[in-house]
Fold each of these.
Amino acid sequence: MNRYSETLYDAWGQSFAVDKVLFETHTDHQHLVIFKNSHYGRVMALDGVIQTTEADEFIYHESLTHIPLLAHGDVKKVLIIGGGDGGILREVCKHKNVESITMVEIDNAVVEMSREHLPKHSDGAFDDSRFQLVIDDGANFVAETEQTFDVIISDSTDPIGPGEVLFTQDFYGNCKRCLNPGGVLVTQNGVPFMQADELISTHERQQVHFADNTFYTAAIPTYVGGVMAFSWASDNKDLRAQNLEIIKARFEQAELAVRFYTPELHLGAFALPGYIQEHLK
Amino acid sequence: MASVSLPAPPVTISPASEAEIYRKAIETHGSPLLVINPAKIRRAYRSLNDALPGVGLYFAIKANPHRAVVKTLAECGASFDIATSGEIELLREIKVRGDNCIHTHPIKRDKDIRDALRYGCTKFVVDNLEEIKKFIPYRNRVGILLRVSFPNPNSPVDLSKKFGCTPDNAIQLAETATEMGIKIKGFSFHAGSQCACPENHTHAVERCAELLMHYNETHEQNMSILDIGGGFPVPYDNGTPDIESFCAPIRNALKLLPEHIAVIAEPGRFLVADAATAVSTVIGVADRCDGRWYYLDDGVYGSYSGRIYDHANYPIRVFSDETSVTHPTIMAGPTCDSIDVFAENINIPELKIGDLVVGEMMGAYTNATATDFNLFPRAKIIESTDAAF
Ligand SMILES: Cc1ncc(COP(=O)(O)O)c(C=O)c1O
C-alpha cells in the first residue's frame, strides 16, 4: 500500500494511506499531488506539506471567511489573495449582501486543477456572477490596485515556499492601503505550537500598520500540531469585541449553511491559550 | 612546462584491436567522451552495502552530479547527501523525496535552509555556533547533526581542515544549541577522502561513540544518529585495500555504539569512481627535450580536472601492437595553460594523431569539477553497460 508522509518536521509527522493518485506534477520547482484517502477524501499536498483535504477543509474555510464577514456586518467587497482551490470563494458566496468578490491567484493552473480535481471545494462558486479572477502575484496586486475592499482574506501557502511574499511587512501595509475604513485583513498563519516564530513575526509586521492586531484559532485535523492561528488586523478595535446577540442576529439574517461556524465559536475563537498569548506580549 | 613533475599513473598498453569499441563510440558521439556505466555503479553500491550492513548510504552528489548517476543510485535505494540548492533541483527532477536526504554543507545561507525545508529535507549538519543560530527560526522543523573534526593529514584530501568542531568542544556546542531550542540529533564526521587506511574512521567512530554515550547519560535529550561521512577509497593504483577489508575494522568500531543509534554514511567517490571511462583523441604531437608530448582533446580543465583538485592519478590505457619500443611521454590537455598535463613520467609506444587515449576510474570528481576554460567543449557524457566501459 502506498503512503504519503508529510515532511514538515524532522521529529514527527502525519502519514496518509494513498488509495489512488488523481493528479501529480513535478513542474516549476515544485511537487504537487492530489490523492484519495478513505478518511479524508481528496487530499492535496505541495512539496511534502498537506494543503487541504475534502474532509476537514470546511473548518479552515469557514473560520477564515465567516468570522471577519459577520464581525464586520456590512461587507460589500471582498478580496481573496490565493485561495485557488475555491474554498474561501464558496464560503464568501454564501453571503448574499456581498456585491463583488475578487480573487488574485498567481497561476491559473491552480484554479483549473482545483476545478477538475477538487470540485467540492468551489462547489460551483467560480461561476458566481459577483466573482472576478485576477491572475497576478498577490503582493503585486495589493501594491498596485486602485480598488478598495471591506475584507481581505489571505489564503496563502506557508511562508517557507511560494507564499513567502504574503508574509512581509510591505504586503500587510499594502493590504491596509486597499482596505476601506473599518475593514479587516485576516490571514492563514500556521500552527503556533510548532511554528511560533511565524506568529511572532506576523504580529511584529502587522502591528506596524494596524491599530488592532491579534489572532484567532481553529483546530483543523490535518494541519497537525494543535490549533491553527489566523491573524486579525484592523483599525477598528470594536470589530472583534461585539456582543453575542449582535453576531447571532447577523448569523440568522445571513442564513448561512455551515458546519463549523457558530456565533459562540466566533467569539470564543479569539480566546487564546496561554502559550500563544505569551508570544504576543 | 608543468612546474611540478607528477608521479606516473598506472599505464596499460592494450592490443590495437581493443581500441575498436572506443573508436566506435567516438565515431557515433564525437570526441572527447566520458562514458558512464550504470552497471558498475550498482555493483559498487552493493559491495559497500555488503561491507557496511545496516548503515544507511547517502550518496554525496558532489562526487558526480550527472543525472544518470544519481538516477541509478536512487533506483538502488540510496539516500542522498546534498550540499546546495542546485543539487536539490536535480533530485526534484528525478523525483527523489526530501526526507531521503541530509544537507551536509556546514555553512548555509538562510535561503539554502529554506530551499531544503521546502524540498522536504529536514536534516542538516552544522559545526559552529553561528550556523546553529541560523536554525533558530526553524528549530521545530529540523534535526541537526554536529560535525566533529578529526584531522587526517595522511589523506590526499583532508576535509577536517576547513570544517568541523573539535571533539572537546562538541558537547558544549550541543548544550548551547539545546538552550536555543535546537535539538542536536547526533554527530557526523568526514574522515578525509580516498583514505589509505581505515584508522581515521575507526578512531573517529570510537571518539564519537564516547561522546554520544556520555551525552546521552548526562542529558535529558537523546542523540540517535552517527554519520560516518565518506572517504571510502578506490584502487586508482595497487596500494588500495579492497572495500571489505577497509570496512571490517569500521564495522568493529561501530559495535561500540548502543543499538538504538542509527548509523549513516556519505560515500561519494566509492560509488562512482569505477563507473566512468574517458575517451580522448590525440590532436597534436611534439618531440621536446623532456620527451614526447601528446596533446589530447581533454585535459585537466575538462574530465581530468580531478588531477588538480582531487589529486587523483587516473589509470591510462593506450592501444598499440608495437610494445617493444617505448618513449618517455607526457600527456597534455588542449588548453594553452602549462598546468594542463595529466600524465607524466610514463613510457609508452608511439601514438599518432587521431589515436585514442582512455582514462579509467574517472567517475568521481571529474565531470563534477570540469570547466569551460578556453571555451573547449566539455566531454560529452554518454551511458553504456558494455563491459569495456
Ligand atoms: C560532507 C561530505 N560528505 C561526503 C563527501 C564524499 O567523500 P568521498 O567522495 O571521499 O566519499 C564529501 C567530499 O568532499 C564531503 O565533503
Amino acid sequence: MTMAFHELRASYAFVERNINLVKRYWGWELVWMLYTIANSLAVVLIARGANTAVGGQPLSTAQVDTLILFLAIGALVWHYLAVVFQTVSEMISWERWEGTIEYTFMAPVRRGTHMVGTALFSLVYGFAHTAVVLVIVVLAFDLNMSHANYVSASAVLIAGSLSLVGIGIMGAVLPLLYPERGAEMTHVIQAALVLISGVYITASEMPEPLATISIFSPATYVIEGIRSALIDGEGFAELWPTMVGLVASGFLMIPLGVYVFSLGERYAKRTGRLKRSG
Amino acid sequence: MTVATTEPEQFRGLRIEVDPHARALEVDDVTKVFRQGPGLIGRMRGKREERKRVVAVDHVSFVVERGEIFGVLGPNGTGKSTLIRLMSTLLMPDTGRVRIFGLDVERDEAQVKRLINRVSVEASFFKKLSPMENLMYGARLYGVDPAYARRKVVEILTRLGLENRSIGSSMEDMSRGMQQKVAIARAFLTAPVLLLLDEPTTGLDPHSKREVQAAVRELRDTHEATVVLTTHDMQEADELCDRIAIVDKGRIVALDTPAALKDMVRQAGEAPPSLEDVFLRLTGKKLEEADKEAELT
Ligand SMILES: Nc1ncnc2c1ncn2[C@@H]1O[C@H](COP(=O)(O)OP(=O)(O)O)[C@@H](O)[C@H]1O
Ligand SMILES: [Mg+2]
C-alpha cells in the first residue's frame, strides 16, 4: 500500500519535471507550435484548392467544407497522437542528451511508474497543444461545427491515447539500444503509423495491402471514431464499441510496452549502453 | 551544523530495514568486459574494424565496512567508473556478485536503489532547470517530503557556498565547481546509506575541493553513511580515505590504509614515501604517465 502510494507520488516527479522543462524551453515550444500550425494549414488548404486543381464537375461549397473538416480532423488527431507517441518515445533520447539518464535509471522507482508519469504529461501536453492548433484552424477556415459531438470525440481520443502510449514505450527502447540513431528510428515508426492509419483518407479505401494492415493500427479507429463524432455527430450509443476496443487495446499495449522496455533495459545494463563515457 | 541528516519520517515509508550484521559493501570476484567497435548495424553499413574486448574490471574483490570512507585510486581508464556503476545498478557484472548491506545488486535491485546514491564525474542535470528544480525532481523520485526537501535544498546548498539567487536560476551558466556542489547536495538530500562518489573533486579549484571533502566527512560523521569514492588525486585519497584500493588495468594491486600502503614501500634513510611512490613501486609507472597512456590508447 505504502509502496503503491510512493509510486503514484513518484510518477508526479516526471510530470513536474517536464512541465518545468516546457517552461524553460518556451522559445522552442513556440517554434514547434508554429511548425505544427503551418503543417496543419497546408494540409487543409488541399481541400480549398480541390476544384481548381482537378477541374471537371466542381464540388459544392458544402462538399468542400466537409472535405476541409475531414482533412482537418486527420491533421489534428494525428498531431495529438504524434505528440503523445513522441513525448513517450523520446523520453530516453532526451535524457541521454541532457546526461541525466543514469540518474533517472538509478532512482528507486519502477520503470512502469517512470513511463506512466511521462505518459500522463504527454496526454495533458498533447491535448493543450492540439487545442491551440484546433482553434486556429477553425478560425482560419470558418468551419461549420454545428453537428459536432465534442464529448464523444474526446472520449475516443482519450481511449485511443492509451494504445499510442504503449507503442511509444516500445519505441523508447530504440534510443536505449542504439544511442546514435535510435531517435531517428522512432520517427520511422511514426511515419509508418501515418501511412497505415488512414489519416488523410478513409482507411478501408486505401490500396491493398495498406487497407488490411490498417485494421491492426489503433490510430485507424481513433481517427474514424472522431470523424464520426465531429462530422456526423455520433455519440456514445454509436461509438461505444470503438471506445471499448481502444481501451482494451491500450490495456494490452501498455504492459507489453513496459515489458519490452524492461528487456531492453536489462540488455543495456549488460552491455554498457546506458552510457559510455565518464 | 549538519548537512546530511534526513529524519526517517521525511521519507514516507521509503526506507527499508537492513540486516544489522551485513557488511556495507561486498564486491566478490567481479568482472566486467565491454565490446567496443561497430555493432551489427555498423558492420552492415560496411565498417570493417574488429570489435575489441575491453576488460574494464578484472576479478575484483573487496569489502567495505560501515562508516568507512573507502577510496579507489588509479589512473584514467582503469575501470573505476565501471566499478561504481556496478555498485549502483547501472551495469550488471559478467561474473561475481556485488552486495550492499547484504542485498544483491542484481536480484534485489529495487531495494538496493533505496540505499544508495551516486555522484558522477560529469554533472548530470537538466541544464535549463535550476538547482531547485533539479533537486526537487530527485526528491520526488526518492520519496522525500517536498516541503521538507525545499527547505533542505536551500540549507545544504547555502552550506556548500551557493548564493541564494543561483538556487533558482538555470544551471547552464554555472561553473563546474558549482555544478558539482549541486550534485553533491542532490545525493545528500536523499540521505543514502551508501554514497558512491565517482571523482567528485576532479576539475574543481582547491577551495571547492576542500569544501566538498569537508562535506563528505561530515556526511559520514553525522549520518553514519558509508562512502566509496574514486579519485586520481593522491592527496585527496591520503587525507580523506580510511582505506584505499589502488587499481591498475581493472585489477586491485594493493589495498590498505594510507599509512600501511606507505609503510610497504618505506626504505630506511629515505624521505617518508607518498602515495605517488607507492603507485610507482606497485605498477612501475607514475600516475600522471599512466593517465597520458590512457588518453593515447
Ligand atoms: N559503456 C561502455 N562501453 C564500452 N566500453 C566502456 C564502457 N564503459 C567503460 N568502457 C571502457 O572500459 C575501460 C574502463 O573505463 P572506466 O571504468 O570509465 O575507467 P576510469 O573511470 O577508471 O577512467 C575503458 O577502456 C573504457 O573505454
Ligand atoms: Mg571514470
